[in-house]
Amino acid sequence: MFRLLMYLIPLALTIYAFIDCLNTPEDEAKHLPKIAWVFIILLFWIVGPIAWLAAGKLRTPPAGGRTPSEWHRNHRVEYVAPDDNPEFLNSLKAEAASSKDVKDEALLKDWEADLRRREEELKRREQGEDPRAD
């Protein structure tokens, strides 16, 4: 059992350091380029991962936070609840106003058409025509 641990612990340490090195942005690798750290970690089984963990990476993250991917770094989104987001609330107001305007215009056109029809009926009655002759 102890013999197995003598191989598993350095292997786990190497795998952890290797993945940590790959996920670290290039500008956070200290003293050497990131590719050099990868080779050091893989070639020097016990010393390489310990050197990476001790001196290879900038351990204090910048104030805005970072992610490993370059795309995510430049496209960080700060999420806000919909009821606190002014852009979302303005879009709701605009949508409600536009749909209300469309409904109001349709109702107004229906009323105008009904009014014209009734005026024509009244003119026919005044002239002595039967309004139901149509």
Report what the structure shows:
Helix content is 66%, strand content 0%. The chain contains 5 helices and no strands. It is mostly helical and 134 residues long.
Please summarize the sheet with the most strands: none
Order of H and E elements: HHHHH
> Which structural category do the helix and sheet elements fall into?
mainly alpha
- Round the Cα radius of gyration to an integer and report it: 37 Å
Number of helices: 5
Helix content: 55-70%
**Principal-axes shape call:** rod-shaped
Number of strands: 0
**Overall residue-averaged pLDDT value:** 81
**N-C termini distance:** 104 Å
Poorly predicted runs: none
Strand percentage, roughly? Answer: under 5%
Keywords:
134 residues, mainly alpha, 0% strand
Topology summary:
Elements: H1 2-23, H2 34-43, H3 47-56, H4 70-74, H5 86-127
Helix pairs in contact: 1-2, 1-3, 2-3
Structure in a nutshell:
This protein is mainly alpha-helical and 134 residues long. 66% of the residues lie in helices and 0% in strands. Helix 1 runs antiparallel to helix 2 (34-43), helix 1 crosses helix 3 and helix 2 (34-43) runs antiparallel to helix 3.
